[in-house]
Amino acid sequence: MEKKVIVIAGPSGSGKNTLIKELTDRFHGVAVLTTATTRTPRPHEVNGEDYYFYSIDDFDREVQKGHIKGERYVPLFGGVHYGIYLPDLQKKLESATAVFASVDITGAEWLKKEYGALTIFITAESFDQYRSRLHNRSRDMSQKEFDMRMKIAREE
User: Fold this and answer.
1) What's the rounded Cα separation, in Å, for the pair 25 and 52?
2) pTM (predicted TM-score)
3) Is the pLDDT of residue 147 over 80?
4) How much is the average pLDDT of 119-133?
5) Nearest to 34 by CA among 61, 80, 68, 2
6) Three-state DSSP string of 104-118
7) Could you tell me the CA-to-CA distances from 146 to 1, 28, 66, 136, 143 in Å, in that order?
8) What is the distance between the alpha carbons of residues 71 and 4, in angstroms, rounded to a whole number?
9) Once rounded to an integer, what is the mean pLDDT over residues 49-66?
10) pLDDT digits (tens, 9 = 90+) for 70-117
């Protein structure tokens, strides 16, 4: 079987990670891409599993080395960078039959261009349903963050 990158893209709260978890539970020999970010880890998150967490300077160095591609600046939380961490992708492509990637539109476009990735975009049935889902998922989210996530969802 040809190794494949499969992108599951969609706005925050659309169900990307739930779908990927279901797929990885059902199919053996697949992996999930771990991306890089400059945001601060949440209490339950593990470096190298949930994300590769970098300071802004270290993230920039990794970009300069060519280790991070498809990077995007997201103006939430004072500004956060995200990107595809190529060492993780290469390692997983060596051992897995397919690698699932939960990335934004910028990352999806890059993976499609560079790896011929299959891209699947998911979202809620309606924008109102998405708004409700996002609100219920993160009740402690500030109005500013909520508005920014809604803006990004409209753009995507």
Assistant:
1) 23
2) 0.82
3) no
4) 77
5) 68
6) CHHHHHHHHHHHCCE
7) 42, 36, 33, 11, 5
8) 21
9) 96
10) 888 776 666 899 999 999 999 999 999 999 999 888 889 999 999 999
Per-residue tokens: 59: 């993230």
The residue assigned the tokens 């309606």 is 126
Q: Which tokens hold the place of 15?
A: 């169900």
Q: State the pLDDT at residue 74.
A: 74
3-state SS of the chain?
A: CCCEEEEEECCCCCCHHHHHHHHHHHCCCEEECCCEECCCCCCCCCECCCEEECCHHHHHHHHHCCCEEEEEEECCCCCEEEEEEHHHHHHHHHHCCEEEECCCHHHHHHHHHHHCCEEEECCCCCHHHHHHHHHHHCCCCCHHHHHHHHHHHHHC
